[in-house]
Amino acid sequence: MLNLGPIEDLKQKVISLEQLVNSALRDVFNQNEKLLIEIQTQIQLYQKGQTSKAITIVPSYAQSTIGKKKRKGDPFDRVTLKDTGALYSSVRFEALDDRLIVTTNVSYTKYLTAKYGPDIFGIQNLEMENFLEKYYLPFYSESAKNLLFK
Q1: What is the mean pLDDT of the chain?
Q2: Which residue, 108, 119, 130, is CA-closest to 56?
Q3: Is there a contact between 79 and 116 (Cβ–Cβ < 8 Å)?
């Protein structure tokens, strides 16, 4: 008679690894929310003026806004969605099993997304790949080792 004990053990570990993927992602996203907010606001919006799809935010600022931005010393050659800083400081990420949800608590978010599109929020693919490589893979790798070799 064939002993399936080791095979059954392996099957259970594979099932556990699948479950670990989502829980590890949630943990890493939650532990690094401040960094994700910085990527969203400071890198993608302020420095690049780009959407989560790495596309320049259009339409550009009106001439009156460009004049105000010049007087304040703010960037005017790209849409940064930063004037008072209220939007940037209200950005939050909620980690679910299969995605990140970006939220803000400023009332004018709906007007911004109507004008510039919903893709103004979210992490660009390249930024997310870098984040996952630096923060998620080491965390998952260690967790997986602990699960497999305990």
Answers
A1: 91
A2: 119
A3: yes
Contact 101, 37 (CB under 8 A): no
Q: 143, exposed or middle or buried, with CB in 10 Å at 0-12, 13-18, 19+?
A: middle
Could you write out the DSSP letters of every residue in the chain? ----HHHHHHHHHHHHHHHHHHHHHHHHHHHTHHHHHHIIIIIIIIII-B-TTS-B-SS---HHHHHHHHHHT---SS----SSSHHHHH-EEEE-SS-EEEE---TTHHHHHHHH-GGGSS--HHHHHHHIIIIIHHHHHHHHHHHHT-
User: pLDDT digit string (tens) for 46-72?
Assistant: 999 999 999 999 999 999 999 999 999
What is the Rg, in whole angstroms, of the alpha carbon atoms belonging to the chain? 21
Report the pLDDT value the prediction gives residue 9, as an integer from 0 to 100. 80
Quote the tokens at residue 16: 């556990």
Query: For residue range 11-29, what is the model confidence (pLDDT) as tens digits?
Result: 888 888 888 888 888 999 9
User: Is the pLDDT score of 33 beyond 60?
Assistant: yes
